[in-house]
Amino acid sequence: MRIDLHTHSSASDGTDTPGDLVREAAAAGLDVVALTDHDAMSGWAEAQQAGDEVGITVVPGLEISTRYGHRGVHLLGYLPDPTHPALVLELDRILEGRTARTPAIVAALRAHGIDISEDDVRRESGGSVAAGRPHVADALARLGVVRDRTEAFATLLSPGQPGYVNRYASALEEMIPLLVDAGGVAVLAHPWGRGSRSVLSAEALAELKDLGLAGIEVDHQDHSAADRAELRAIAADLDLVVTGSSDHHGLGKVDHDLGVNTTAPEHYERLLSLAGPSLGG
Ligand SMILES: [Zn+2]
Ligand SMILES: [Zn+2]
Asked: How far is the CA of 221 from the centre of ligand 2 (A)?
């Protein structure tokens, strides 16, 4: 059984529609695929329908933008009740922050002498409710300012760079219990990717587990072989679920092909068993 628990569609910053993504996952030989768009659950229905058509299990999920200390940390949530009032409210706040952020980034880049407009960004984001930095990066690439998304993030859009603008994110310590309250399963996405290793130590992970964290994404392209071995040992020590996934973004990210990392069936089963009825907020 091949299981990929982290993918993005055009409901956030992936390039495939939710339906196309699921069909591609089936074609890639996956048996289970989770749709985990950034702060958005709007792709679930279309993905589920495509899954029923092609005979692949679709796990509804999302990747929530949180902060922990002064760092941005991504939290995967699986199978939460999409109508849970407090969760819906918090996701709205995050999306609002993201929407307001894009014009601020464009203004900052313009102040830095780069000729980019909000229309350039809108052209890249299409109908996404989660227009954000990846779409600004795509616009910069199309305008020839950078070669690709990677260069845009490496030179312009990350903290400390000319096009970086802070935005609202939930506190991780509040989002984990909220997800659990909504009947969801909380798994930290790529905990040691993008410089987060310094804040997400074994001690921090133990504390987060006490708040309801169920697992960590160990097998991710942002983690070296050494990182993975160390994280796997921590997970075993703390009795956390271990997941692996592609973090596929369609054409939006190279080296993240569907199924490039997978989750072991026994860990997937355990994850499913932890999803519970929503407590209703
Ligand atoms: Zn992420
Ligand atoms: Zn992701």
From this structure: 11
How far, in Å, from the CA of 234 to the mean position of ligand 2? 22
Q: Which two tokens stand for residue 70?
A: 């002064």
Report DSSP letters for 86-114, one per residue: HHHHHHHHHHHHHHHHHHHHHHHHHHTT-
Share of the chain above pLDDT 70, in %: 98
Question: 199-238, pLDDT tens digit by residue?
Answer: 999 999 999 999 999 999 999 999 999 999 999 999 999 9
Q: Torsion angle, CA of 220/222/224/225, rounded to 10 degrees? A: 10
> Residue 134: which of 116, 153, 118, 108 has the closest Cα?
153
Distance 246 CA to ligand 1 centre (A): 11
How far apart CA 61 and CA 128 sit, in angstroms, is: 17
Distance in Å, CA 110 to ligand 1 centroid: 27
Half-sphere exposure of 196 (CA within 13 A, CB side): 23
Ligand 2: centre distance to CA 20 (Å): 17
CA-based nearest residue to 2, from 180, 197, 219, 166:
219
Q: Residue 14 C-alpha to ligand 1 middle, in angstroms?
A: 12
Q: What's the CA-to-centroid distance between 113 and ligand 2, angstroms?
A: 31
Distance in Å, CA 8 to ligand 2 centroid: 6
Contact indicator for 198, 208 with CB cutoff of 8 Å: no
